[in-house]
Design goal:
The chain is α+β, with helices and mostly antiparallel strands. The chain has helices spanning 2-30, 68-98; strands at residues 33-38, 43-48, 53-58.
Length: 108
């Protein structure tokens, strides 16, 4: 019975280490910036690795007061592209820790 307890302690230690590594990874992802663009770079969106929008840059040439809808579409496309890049980065980085398993309770 004692060996079962030792195995459980070892498993708990491994889970705690994985959680610590995941927290470190999330912190590092928050410091990474990813970019999405649309309209040949006329609109750029910047997000961090935690999928939080940081900034949107719009070239003056993309601003047409008579065609706001196009600008809105460009902004949406750029933000989506940046968020997709951030999601893919996050998935790659967390897979390094979890071996690709989806583990509940680890904040990802």
């Amino acid at each position: 019975m004692a060996s079962g307890f030792g195995d459980m302690q070892s498993l708990l230690k491994q889970a705690q280490e994985m959680q610590r590594r995941m927290q470190d990874t999330m912190r590092a992802l928050g410091e990474r910036t990813l970019e999405g663009s649309a309209g040949g770079g006329a609109v750029k969106a910047f997000v961090n690795g935690n999928q939080e929008l940081q900034a949107v840059k719009i070239d003056k040439a993309a601003v047409d007061p008579d065609d706001v809808e196009t600008l809105e579409d460009l902004v949406t496309a750029a933000v989506r592209q940046a968020l997709t890049a951030a999601k893919e980065l996050r998935e790659r980085e967390t897979a390094k820790i979890t071996g690709g398993m989806n583990l509940p309770g680890f904040g990802f």
